Amino acid sequence: MAAELTAAQAALAQVATDPGAKKPDPIVVGSGITRTFGGLKAVDVEHIEIQRGVITALIGPNGAGKTTLFNLLTGFDEPNSGQWSFNGNALQSVSAYKVARLGMVRTFQLTKVLAKLTVIENMRLGATGQKGEKFWLAPFKWLWKGQEDEITSRADDLLARFKLDAKREDFAGSLSGGQRKLLEMARALMVDPELIMLDEPMAGVNPALKQSLLGHVQSLRDEGRTVLFVEHDMDMVRHISDWVIVMAQGQIVAEGTPQSVMADQRVIDAYLGAHHDTDLSELDEAALEAEVEAEIKEEQA
Amino acid sequence: MGDGTAIDVTLSDDSKKVDGQPAPIEGVTLTVTTDDGTEVGEDVTDAEGKASIPLPGGGTYTVTLDEDTLPEGIELDSKTRTELEVRVLISGSATIAAFPIGVQAADTTGFATKLIDSIVSGIKFGLIIALAALGLSLIFGATGLTNFAHGELITLGGVVTYWFNRDAGLPVILAGLAAVLVSALFGYAQDRVLWRPLRRRGTGLIAMMIVSIGFALFLRSIFQYTFGGSTQTYDQYVAQVRHSWGPIHLNDKEIAIIVISLVVITAVCIAMMKTRMGKAMRAVSDNPALSASSGMRVDSVIRNAWILGTALTGLSGVLLGLNSQVSFQNGGRMLLLVFAAVTLGGLGTIWGALLGSLVIGIIVEVGPTFGVPSSIKEVGALVVLILILLVRPQGILGRRERIG
Amino acid sequence: MDFLEILRTALQQALGPTAIVYVLAAIGINVHFGYTGLLNFGQSGFMAVGAYGLAVTVVILDGSFWLGVAVSFVAALALAIVLGLPTLRLRADYLAIVTIATSEALRLVFGSVEMKDTFGGSNGLTGYSKVYKDLNPYSDGIDLGFISYRRDDLWNITVGWSLVAICCLVVWALMRSPWGRVLRSIREDEDAVRSLGKNVFAYKMQALILGGMIGGLAGLFFALKQASVVPTDYNTNLTFLAYTALLVGGAARVLGPVVGGVILWFLLSGLGATFGQMTSGPDPILPTWLMDSSQSSLTRFIVTGLALMLLMIFRPQGIFGDRREIAIDGR
């Protein structure tokens, strides 16, 4: 951990470690967000605030509703109720692409690189405000050639930073799991987001790459962006996050600095204690199975 | 062909005069058979009410009028027969059969009567659609595939029944049963030969949909090749007199269609609820990956869905042929309605398919009562399809899907 | 059997007006399916409104020829919007369902007895192509030795191949641009594109309109070269043949539909001529119980259906394509 703290990190020291705690400078504020799937409440968040300029981790057992919350906040799913805002802009029923344009960009748990496009084309796609993406201008190359060159050089810089420059002309489908995660992150940066939301950035990444990925995530904060990530890898959570929000059964059950959360009895009960050594994927299936059975019963009734 | 000998029929409505002449009736199908029951040919009356059926030569023939093709508002009265015996003695197109049609003209039939009639016939048609829609839903639920060759599976039922009935000489009931069996076998075969290997290869759904349009083109052309381009009927139950129960008028075959569909649909629904295989099918359609991981034999579930789905769809074709006629295009025309029905109810849900089918059946049949031209009454189903997608794309009974 | 005659017919047809109709239809489907991943199973519907747009304007409404041409394009554009609005936010099969249903419904409407005064019923409409015929600059047909075209067919293929060239140029210019990149990305994973701030719905709509209008152009050309529009010409077989042409030549390549259309029509015409010869005459080579002359014309559809299935299964990239580039194999 860096010795000197930014103002944003320092401010967190004053925040109460209660679920839904108010932050001094929140970038995202939401309340009353619920989403049900066939009678099962996947998300039921009373209040949530994300501090600007720091790395916030969202943890919790599988099925806790973390990814669903991600989907809701970014407009990829519609909640049953609730309101939330980003930088003061209300985001209820704002479509996903507009959320991204506002500066809130997410990645996916199962990476969504465009396998049949080359790495550099994947990157170029990320840039916003492209003249050449307008139907009427697109056929005339001289109108967008200049901008395309700018975009390409920015993309090349990012590829170099993420050590993907050697793969520039390869099809993205040929990359390894870890490289795909890197490419997705780099592509998200092409949008130049204020808040970047990473859904399990460490899943399926080989250990050798993990350390450099951690460095990349920290570098995002260091260049002034806010990071929110979902993660199971407790090492990662402990090492790089400034703040941790714990979810279980759709609700936020605890919040705090990594040290205080790991010591919190509620967290140990809800998450670490009970299933500390169990394989999380088994839990997931059990939960899903229960869900399916519940639905079948419901239909029969 | 013959030597120009033909039976010429002029159909006209005595109760409605145009310029002092009886008004011609257009679009009615007339079939000519020999006295041993072999069909000689058929024709549809033109704008002047005229039809001409060529004959191989002299002899005694029966001209049959297909009551279902009569325009809305025209019915044969009790004095009129739908069959007429004609003796052709001389060659040349001189033999004329006249159907004096006693008519209940449109204005003597009350709106309420017409409405009730069309609702009843809509329910009957809806049940025929429901069998095919149930088949489509079962297959969709198990495989996720929207099968664009589904219409051809409807055609299969009608065409095979026709062959067993006319060529093999089986009574229609036995021929229909045989056709359902053939359909079930065909369902097994197409999964075994086509779809299962594709699943094994990991072929994607989009690619499978393209394969299914190729399959549709292939099957439809095979039917046209072997069955021919014309429209045919089974040799029994072609024209029947309607009985009345209060405001409801149905003939025997219509009652049979309604009863058979209801019994089969109920049986399938009970089986889906109560039996192991039914529960397994529903579990697979809810979550294939989970079902596989919990030890279910997904492949056998999918195979059964193909067998049962194709058999139900074949039955739909058998009944459609009984209700009206058999043609290689039967399925193509039904496809629109079946798709509208399952989308309306919610793709992949069984109750949704049933509800959607009844709604579509009734909309299609009731439409003409409210002034929809009867030759394009199917278009109403399309309008409903587009509207429901705009308002509630998951259908009446469908659930919103989880993303990501 | 006269093999030279079969070869001549096949070649003549492969470069002739009918092949051009399929090529144009397939270029439109290429924009939809090849580049964007949209399943339009109702290209025949776009073609029908293109053809009827001209015919109805000129014959029924007494409008000018050029107004009719404009109406054709507007009709195709309107159809694309009507089909796209309810379906483009939904899973891919909904567009397929609605397009195939609409194309069939349109055919029913155009052929209906009740609307005979507007659309000409099952006989269709004629008598709208005088302006087009009068524009013909050729005084005579052309004889290339092995194949020859009559005067009006020469004019048809001149116009037709010019239209093909223009469409290919437009598709090429668009698909190399960032706009084309967005389409290809949508074909792969539209959620990824959405997460990067692109209005996926708008791009899909633009693609649907562009491909649909090229389909309308195909219908317009069909109407001009045929000099009559008949509803039964616009059945789903037309769409399916165009898909086969596209897959033969290779989807998502500018010249794929052109190469595919020519090859497909060469093979189908050759096949038709072969079976035609084998079933004609007083003592046909094939016994009539096996195949008569009306059945011989069906062989092309049977073969096309099979070809479409086999291509999609074994060579989705087309005859010349590179499997790595085509996105339609995996999911």
Automatic annotation (TrEMBL), chain A:
Pfam families: ABC_tran, BCA_ABC_TP_C. One of its GO terms (cellular component) is plasma membrane. SUPFAM superfamilies: P-loop containing nucleoside triphosphate hydrolases. GO terms for molecular function: ATP binding; ATP hydrolysis activity. InterPro entries: AAA+_ATPase, ABC_AA/LPS_Transport, ABC_transporter-like_ATP-bd, ABC_transporter-like_CS, BCA_ABC_TP_C, P-loop_NTPase. Gene3D superfamilies: P-loop containing nucleotide triphosphate hydrolases. Keywords: ATP-binding, Nucleotide-binding, Transport. The keyword Membrane does not apply. Coiled coil: none annotated. PANTHER family: CONSERVED COMPONENT OF ABC TRANSPORTER FOR NATURAL AMINO ACIDS, CONSERVED COMPONENT OF ABC TRANSPORTER FOR NATURAL AMINO ACIDS-RELATED. This is Branched-chain amino acid transport system ATP-binding protein. It comes from Nocardioides lianchengensis.
UniProtKB/TrEMBL annotation, chain B:
It is a multi-pass membrane protein. Keywords: Amino-acid transport, Cell inner membrane, Cell membrane, Membrane, Transmembrane, Transmembrane helix, Transport. Transmembrane segments: none annotated. GO terms for molecular function: L-isoleucine transmembrane transporter activity; L-leucine transmembrane transporter activity; L-phenylalanine transmembrane transporter activity; L-valine transmembrane transporter activity. Residues 16-80 form the SpaA-like prealbumin fold domain. SUPFAM superfamilies: Cna protein B-type domain. It comes from the Bacteria. It is found in: Cell membrane. GO terms for cellular component: plasma membrane. GO terms for biological process: carbohydrate metabolic process; D-alanine transmembrane transport; L-alanine transport; L-isoleucine import across plasma membrane. Belongs to the binding-protein-dependent transport system permease family. LivHM subfamily. This is Branched-chain amino acid transport system permease protein. It comes from Nocardioides lianchengensis.
TrEMBL record, chain C:
It comes from the Bacteria. GO terms for cellular component: plasma membrane. It is a multi-pass membrane protein. InterPro entries: ABC_transp_permease, LivM-like. The keyword Transmembrane applies. Transmembrane segments: none annotated. GO terms for molecular function: branched-chain amino acid transmembrane transporter activity. It is found in: Cell membrane. Keywords: Cell membrane, Membrane, Transmembrane, Transmembrane helix. The keyword Translocase does not apply. This is Branched-chain amino acid transport system permease protein. It comes from Nocardioides lianchengensis. The lineage of its organism: Bacteria, Bacillati, Actinomycetota, Actinomycetes, Propionibacteriales.
